[in-house]
Write a structure and sequence with these properties.
single chain, 575 residues, mainly alpha, two-stranded antiparallel sheet, 4% strand, globular, DUF1800 domain-containing protein
Amino acid sequence: MNRRHFLQRNATVLSAPVAAGRAAPAATAQQDPPETVSRYANKVLPTFASRLTSTLTPYTGTWGEAQAAHLLRRCLFGPTRTEIQTAAAANLTTVLNGLLTVPATAPDPPLNVSTTDTSVPIGTTWMAQTFDQNFEGVRRTSLRDWWLGQLLTQNTSLVEKMTLFWHNHFVVEFGDINDARMGYEYCRLLRQYALGNVKQLAKDVTVTPAMLRYLNGNQSTAGAPNENYGRELLELFTVGKGPLIAAGNYTNYTEADVQAAAKVLTGWRDQNAPVGSYFTASRHDTTTKTFSSAFGNATIANAGATEYQNLIDLIFQQAETARFIVRKLYRWFVYYVIDAQVETDIIRPLATLLISSNFEVAPVLRTLLSSEHFFDVLNMGCLIKSPLDFTVGLCRQMQVMFPPASGPVAQYGMWNYLNAVTSLQQQVIGDPPNVAGWAAYYQTPQFHELWINAVTLPRRNQITDLLIGSGYTRNGVKIVIDVLALTQSFPAATASDCNLLIAEYVKLMVPITLTANQLAFLKTALLPGLPDFEWTVEWQQYLAAPTNTAKKAAVTTKLQAMLRALMGLAEYHLS
């Protein structure tokens, strides 16, 4: 399997118009052409005679930096060199124990950093304030920036990656719900259950105010049941469609099931002050709801405010619900192709485990992430990074220094800039494009290839070039890759040997082995036409006189050129 094939074609053709000089990405989104599908993306799903045969048998092979890096790349947003080395020095079980540990305290809520919002002082939270449309825009921006900050400042826990997974699964769009306080409560709920019980999460998200508003559950009454949430609950959040068997009917549910679910869900409304939801019995359909043979012709009698829980219980009794959720987890953490072997040996056993674990997701994640299948060489470096993985991972791996919490305006300003950057790459945290989430996780046959197109690839190149070079300044603070400090964090012998230095950066930044020609290309970028010893000489001269402008510039420009070349490789976009 040639993981590089798609990206190589794009790197050659699509980056050509900007090779002569890339402009720095703006702090606010620009109007790019709305291309979302590259002409090089899959036209059909790739087929493999036998891509792999590995199973969920616990992995007992080599455990080192390559394996630790693979695990952390999939579980974190850009693992740092220290995180990888710490994991490699432990063992798989210990690392998974850490990844599956929920931090003892939840993050503090987002802060006001805009003079527009006069309801609270700068640096204090707006969460307890009443809704005000005049302040909603800056509060929503604060919420998105705060969320980006959680990714950037994560510890070695799966919580942030899984919070985003559930956001892509139980989708709401902040722009549609138009109340940042409800958006925060939704985020808090997803983080609370990030590694917890998916059935309970499904129950709680059903009546969370953000979801009631987003899919019109707050408008659903006995006289006019709204089918939006009931339809998406079945199709996208739980059991999935299955094959079409008649107009509007699928093997896993029918149109009549959508209508019955809508009746069950009547009577709920969102509440503005304080933020919450409540049930009004007079708006609830009190009839007995009958479901199709897909649900064993089950009935749900009137149960008032708790009736929705009975609906969730019924849906989770269907084996296909666990399989549907496990398939989404597989595509998030492993690969997008689910062939007959993967379905039989990976999906079905994990779904069975999810059911037997009473829908606790942690046992499923532990089994998948500790399996021979996960560490199969063909599952390493086979995913294209999402814009959030790419941008946040760039900053974390390159140890970019951000403003401290003591300066919230500057801190949030930089988080806001990174949100603008990921928006230009066609991923906006808090606002997936629609209720199905980001197309890269479901749109067949392209899947993750949708992240790379004629718009997004140049934008990725621009942010790497900018941070490698002059950096980005806002509110009097600059973020930039300090190539000298990063290189000095390597062992002295590594930093002073050009071949070892390049190998160390490659090991950190690229998930698959580079060719000899590619390594030679990187050395040429570092030492154009010069012998290897020249780097050792110049590096030692810099260390001897670190304040000497000429000696500092000599090694800085060489390191910047090498990193620019490395980040320009197709392989850098892989995870």
